[in-house]
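EI: anyone free to look at a 55-residue chain?
SC: sure, send it
EI:
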Amino acid sequence: MLLKQANIFLKDYEEQLKQGKDPEFNSTNLGIKNAEFWANGYQSKDQEEKKRVAN
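SC: here you go
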């Protein structure tokens, strides 16, 4: 049942890696409903700090 969704997530992850990004799960971009926690991409405090320092 989850194979289709898992493949979508994996392709998104791999594409972000190819683009040189630190992969981030974003439920909105992947069309997942009722997942507000990840709606704008979940980031750990370490990731947020890295972005803040880089700017």
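EI: The helical segments are 3-18, 45-54.
SC: 👍
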